[in-house]
Amino acid sequence: MNTSDVKAIPAPRAKRAAVRFGRPPKELAGEVDARILDAARRVFLQRGFEGASIDEIAEVARSGKRTIYARFEDKRALFTEVVTRDILRIAEFKTKPPTGVTIEERLTNAAATLLHWGFDPDRIGLMRLAIAEANRFPDLAAGVNQRARELSTELGADLLRELTRSDQLGSLPAFAPEHLATTARLFLDIIAVPMLLRALFVVDLKTLDPEIDAHVARGVTFFLAACRNGGVEGRQE
Question: Are the beta carbons of 227 and 174 closer than 8 angstroms?
């Protein structure tokens, strides 16, 4: 796995400052959980699953092992939560109203923004790690794949619904409420999936940046032509 994009983790100090144990106040519990998960994410990205240790995660999180074990049964449970949390962040994607005179331009700008956001080096690195550990975590791999598809489909449907609301394209059968989820999935399979596969195998993600806009523009043209000619009408996922 490439570690060039992952911030180096300092070697553990010989002596650690005293750590206060026990349950934190309720209002701080979420902050503690987030700090532990952020630290675990860094360590897993740097060391891999096998190379990571609870000791180092505790050091990076400025926490105690007892605090971590009070929340996560073991390293496997912590890894599962880190990967799951990262996938759920798909729902956090927000973008300003896309600019453009035509629906093609607005959809192209929105899709390009989504891909640039999604191809964060750490996010892709964690996906690579989850794939590499699929044999060790088969339920996690299957669950993450399913949840990622569900969340991305919801995101795609919301995007298409918003962009076609004030355009005559919205009157086409492909954008009817009963077809919108299927249409969104096809849109993502055309636009996002090919570039995601590229990203998983490219060492330097920055080399993909110049390709994203051109790829999205071609994909949007193809997608809208299919919608306008009934290519996705009535298809079931």
Answer: yes
Number of domains the chain is built from: 2
**CA 9, chain centre distance (Å):** 23
Amino acid at 6: V
Contact between 51 and 42 under an 8 Å Cβ cutoff? The reply is no
Alpha helices in 119-176 (DSSP H): 121-132, 138-164
Q: Contact 147/86 with Cβ under 8 angstroms?
A: no
Q: Which domain holds residue 179?
A: 88-228
Give the dihedral sign, CA 166/169/172/175.
negative
State whether 114 and 58 are in the same domain.
no
119 close to 208: Cβ distance less than 8 angstroms: yes
pTM: 0.77
Handedness of CA 168, 94, 46, 133 (dihedral sign): negative
Return left, alpha or beta for 64; rule: phi > 0 is left, psi -120 to 50 is alpha, else beta. beta
Query: Over the stretch 139-189, which tens digit does the pLDDT of each residue have?
Result: 998 998 899 999 999 999 999 998 888 788 888 999 999 999 999 999 999
Cα-only R_g, the chain: 21
Cβ neighbour number for residue 188 with a 10 Å cutoff? 22
Phi/psi for 42 (5° steps) reads -60, -45
